[in-house]
Write a structure and sequence with these properties.
With 106 residues, the protein is α+β, with helices and mostly antiparallel strands. The protein is built from four helices and four strands. Helix content is 33%, strand content 12%. The protein is globular, with a radius of gyration of 16 Å.
Length: 106
C-alpha cells in the first residue's frame, strides 16, 4: 500500500524516509531493492540502538510517523486506508496516474 500511496501523493508533496533497524547492510540493501522501495533510507546498523529510532521513540516495527510541513507530528502508525484518508485530507485527492502502455515487438 505504501508503494501505491507514494505513486499517488509524491507529486503533491508526500515523501517517505525509511529508517531501518537492521544490523546487516548487505541484507538491508538487498531487501530495499527486492521490494522496490524507491524512497530514501537510512540506518546506522545498530538494531534497537538505532539513533533515529530512539529519537522518534519507535519501540516496535513496523511503525510510521506522519509529519506536516513544519515537522509537527500529525499521525502515528497510520496504515492502509487510514493513511490514504489522512493524506487525502491533507493533500487532496490522489493524483491520477497515466496507465502504463506496453510495447510489443512485432
Amino acid at each position: 500500500m505504501l508503494l501505491k500511496l507514494t505513486r499517488h501523493f509524491t507529486q503533491k508533496g508526500f515523501d517517505v524516509l525509511g529508517v531501518s533497524f537492521d544490523r546487516d547492510k548487505v541484507k538491508w540493501e538487498k531487501a530495499i531493492k527486492a521490494d522496490n522501495l524507491t524512497w530514501n533510507h537510512v540506518s546506522d546498523l545498530k538494531y534497537w540502538g538505532n539513533a533515529a529510532g530512539n529519537y522518534t521513540v519507535i519501540n516496535s516495527i513496523p511503525a510510521n510517523i506522519l509529519l506536516d510541513k513544519d515537522q509537527k507530528i500529525i499521525g502515528r502508525n497510520l496504515k492502509g486506508e487510514a493513511l490514504m484518508s489522512k493524506l487525502t485530507e491533507l493533500l487532496g485527492a490522489p493524483a491520477k496516474l497515466q496507465k502504463r502502455v506496453k510495447f510489443c515487438k512485432k
